[in-house]
Amino acid sequence: MSALSRSASVASTGAGRGSNAVKTRLAGLLFGVGFGFWLCWTRFTSYDVILGGLRFQQLYLWLMFGSAVVTAAIGLQVLRSLGARTWLDGVSVDWSTTSIRRAHLVGSAMFGVGWAVAGTCPGPAAAQIGQGHMAGLFTAAGIFAGVALQGWVSRRRVTAPVVSPGACAQA
Fold first, then answer.
1. Where along the chain do its domains lie?
2. Residue of 88 and 163 predicted with greater confidence
3. What is the DSSP track for 66-111?
4. Which residue among 52, 91, 112, 126 is least crowded, i.e. fewest CB within 10 A of its CB?
5. Dihedral sign, CA of 83, 95, 70, 142?
6. What is the Cβ-side half-sphere exposure of residue 31, based on CA atoms within 13 angstroms?
C-alpha cells in the first residue's frame, strides 16, 4: 500500500486516534492556511488571472504550475531515493502508479470544464471564501455536488446487476 493511500485510509477511517490524530489535523490546518495565503498572494483566487491563463493570454499561471510540478517531482524523487519517512507518522515516502483508465480521462475533462466555467478549482475556491468573495460559495457548492454525484454513480455501478449480451434473446 502506498504512503498516500495509507494516509488517506487512516484519515478516512479515523484510525490513529489520540495525540497523533491531533498532530495530523493541526499540521493539515497550518498547511491549509499557509496554502490559502499563498493562493491569495499569487492572485490565484482572481478570476481574471485564471481566465487569462486558460486563454493562454497570460503565462503567469502556467509558469507557476510548471515550477510547482517540477519542484515537487524532483523533490519527491530525491526523498524516495533517500528512503525518507513522513514527519507525522513515519511512513516511507513512496507511491505506486496505475495505467490510465477511462475514468481518469472523463474525470480530467470534467475537472477542466468546471475549472473553465467557474474560473477556479477547489483550493482557490476555499481561499476565495476566506477572502469574502461569495462567488467561491457557488464553486464550492458545485464541487460538493460533483463529489456527491460521483459517489452516487460509483455506488450504482457496484450494485448494478451484470447482464450478459445474450440474456434478452434467451428470455
1. 1-97, 99-160
2. 88
3. HHHHHHHHHHHHHHHHTT-B-TTT--B---------HHHHHHHHHH
4. 112
5. negative
6. 6
